[in-house]
Amino acid sequence: MVELSSNFLFTAFILYLVGILFFGGAIKDKRHADKKAGPNRWAKIGIIITIAGFVSQLIFFILRWIASGHAPVSNLFEFTTFFGMSLVGAFIFIYFMYKTPLLGLFTLPIAALIIAYGSMFPRDVTPLIPALQSYWLHIHVTTTAIGQSILAVSFAAGLIYLVKSVDQQKRTKSNIWLEVVLFGLVSTLGFVFVSSYFAATDYSVNFNYINKDGQPDTEKYSLPALVGPYQYEMTDQSRFEPLFKTPAIISARKLNTVIWSIGAGIVLYGFLRLILRKRVAAAIQPWTKNINLDLVDEIGYRSVLIGFPVFTLGGLIFAMIWAQIAWTRFWGWDPKEVWALITWLFYAAFLHLRLSKGWHGQKSAWLAVIGFIIIMFNLVAVNLVIAGLHSYAGS
Amino acid sequence: MKEVKCECGHVNPQGTILCESCGRLLEDNEKEKQLIDMRYEGSARRSQTYNKTIIDKIWNFFSSVKVGVSLIIILLIASSLGTIFPQEMYIPPLLPASEYYGEKYGWLGKLYYDLGFHNLYSSWWYLILIAALGISLVIASLDRVVPLYRSLKNQRVKRHESFLKRQRMFHVSDAELPEEASAKIKAKLAKKRYKLREEDGDLLAEKNRFSRWGPYVNHLGLIIFLIGGMLRFVPGMYVDEILWLRDGETKSIPGTEGRYYLKNNQFIFEVYDKDKDEKVFKDAISKVGTVVKNYQTNATLYERQGDIIPGETPKLEKVRDQSIQVNKPLKIDGYALYQVDYKLGEMSKMAFKLENKQTKEQFGDLVVDLYDPKMSYDLGKGYKVEVMSYFPDFEFNEDGEPATKSRVPNNPAFIFNMITPDKPDGEVSFVAIRQNLEPLGENDYKMTFAGIETKNVTALTVRKDYTLWIIGLGGLIFMIGVVQGAYWNHRRLWIRRINGQIWTAAHTNKNWYGLKRELDEVFADSGIDAPKDQEAEDKKE
Ligand code: HEM
């Protein structure tokens, strides 16, 4: 059943990619892109394919739930793919409010990237430790992911806004930062490529080393080691010898993965620049030609407005209820909790700035981008680097 | 209080921008602007009106959204600092914090500790930040809610031209609005749940006014939440104790003043078994090793009968049997007992034999209860063992003498006096795990170790929290408020007949696009145009 469910996930992923092509077609089709007449045929097919992908991923989710006996949101792979699915769901929902294929052209690649990223983590069905055996946990995690994904739509809208409105004629702070954001997306893609390649070739290299508690330990890398652990000794002789060693408190394996991702990102990005012969944002700018900036701004704001209450409910209120039952206190200043609070405070600031200081347009778009970075930080860095009680951590 | 009189005769409080009655502009410097600020309907706010005394200044400071947002951002950044390294409560208890941070994270860790960031969330300055946010919430809300109430309540159908003209959505049509078309518009508006008011053929259509209260409701929820958090510091509102119970042991539940007792019948610890549990978990379990499946205390709850009489064993009446698991606390009378910790295989009994070293002959068994050893054990026939000293958690102290670290039998040691028919004064022997010393010279007899019994120990946290209700209520009110403010918006449409023209203007507090779409539908084939977005036109020029 788990095997079968994975096929549905894969199908969903492919359908999302096809959906991107159709939304691209919808924009290129000059006859009625984003005009009053409503979405053209390309866009209509695009949204149908997207919905088919969403349904397919929903089947994956249900089958895996049946197979494991608990909602599949209990490890990084499951949570991240669920987040990707919610993002597609949020997009479908907002698409029917505003009928803008361009939003699909930006949201679907982000969702596909998130799903691909999540699939790089161990995909085994994991049993639940006692603290996680609570339906409140599942309610909390799913609601949070849905809230975050609606907020993420504002990131997509913000990106569209910036790509269209940031002046690409001359070099400015804005377009450098915009390239940095796009580079982040490209690096994630780089990570996916590199991990998939070495996973397909069954690469591994093992070390004996001294861990952060001063104890001998072993570590297994699935990427060639550029950095080795503290006082390491490589146990596979034929492998590439690391160039550096890390101090004991840094996880060398994770640092190694980060270096590979950025490296692959630089290669990919460099390659893109070479064929495009201009900034990446400048290259996608023509796609946004026909969109109305006010509309994009409004979509960004509305998605924050819709997502904020959902996130509050899942990420803070349900989280507190669960924490009270499982950990005896509703709040414990665990890093994951603190970052949920930070996310919440950030979007509260967003709403106030917009309402009272009139931060519309580009300012608002940048805030949406920063908000998404905070969400991703909580998902990726806090789980992998800071890691508190929330026991997804580790892999 | 100074007052401002409008041309229409209405007397407004000082600071009012738009007349509360007819909507005429009162402030001269507002007249230059093309669009008016409609946020509080142009009514007077305390913070905009007074700025003399120190109280005015404090009020104005906290009522400013700029200050509010700054507080939120400072709090956000401060909070993130506390996640760089673990907080003190999460560090392993092996080293004191003063050494731990420096040792583990180098000079940065030391700095972190010196700045007090290891206890950031209970530091005085963090609490002050939260308090300031709370004050700001209260003052900013009070400052706005009254004027907003006044103006939303005092809405006129006929608004002055200067009011209509300065609305963001505005249009003048040089056309007639025949009765038929007008009725159609009204029907469409009613269908979209607008409430209609008419005066001499002029129209005000309004809906979702309640959503304007959303922010005030959610701020009220937050304030209640913060008050709930503060009450935690009031004695009696909050109990947080820990209860260690060995298998078979009964103890009074701390914090209940001797009213309730709990017996631990058995503590259960289970791990997933890759062969016995569901097959889908097999791969994950083989990769990770052990994964814990269950922590459980099978407990019996008792209630004491009668008063406490010192020195007397209390009379207990069983309330119920219940198993306590993680995520499944036992609840009684406002108290909750949570499974939080455990210890497997704590030594509970030790068995010895008295043995003649030469003949290897043994004389009887003695089983020492490590929680409560007897003074002496009579083995019959003149053989007897006296316990001279007992060290449950044995160590040599700084003076090199035997001592005990705690009362928990982690490393039990004894000084026995062995009395036998041939040595009636006894021989002294020191016995600890894998040690057998004869401090007072060579003995003829010794105590040989004959096994141990162990017990599991469970640890339960005892909580009583009377603030939870308030905090929950605050959360609920907050949710109602955000949803109210976010999922509905307040929309208004004015239609006036002025000098043979039709003036239309519309306002919403958010979601202009939605309003535009709605109005386009309402005015479709009515002969007059829907109000147009003046701001969007501004931009194009
Ligand atoms: C973490 C704390 C806070 C949260 C979660 C919060 C939440 C909100 C929300 C959701 C809105 C509605 C925004 C919208 O509809 O776009 C709002 C409005 C508002 N907030 Fe807050 N707020 C917080 C703190 C503050 C503070 C400290 C101030 C003090 C200046 C403040 C002043 C206001 C004002 C003036 C409004 C607009 C009210 C209106 O439109 O009538 N808020 N707040």
Automatic annotation (TrEMBL), chain A:
It is found in: Membrane. This is Cytochrome C biogenesis protein. One of its GO terms (molecular function) is heme binding. InterPro entries: Cyt_c_assembly (IPR002541), Cyt_c_biogenesis_CcsA (IPR017562), Cyt_c_biogenesis_CcsA/CcmC (IPR045062). Pfam families: Cytochrom_C_asm. The keyword Transmembrane helix applies. Keywords: Cytochrome c-type biogenesis, Membrane, Transmembrane, Transmembrane helix. GO terms for cellular component: plasma membrane. PANTHER family: CYTOCHROME B_B6 PROTEIN-RELATED (PTHR30071:SF1), HEME EXPORTER PROTEIN C (PTHR30071). The chain crosses the membrane at residues 6-24, 45-67, 79-96, 103-121, 141-163, 175-199, 258-276, 304-326, 338-355, 367-389. GO terms for biological process: cytochrome complex assembly. Residues 74-390 form the Cytochrome c assembly protein domain.
TrEMBL record, chain B:
It holds the Pfam family ResB. The keyword Membrane applies. It is a multi-pass membrane protein. Residues 65-426, 429-520 form the ResB-like domain. It is found in: Membrane. PANTHER family: CYTOCHROME C BIOGENESIS PROTEIN CCS1, CHLOROPLASTIC. This is Cytochrome C biogenesis protein. The lineage of its organism: Bacteria, Bacillati, Bacillota, Bacilli, Bacillales.
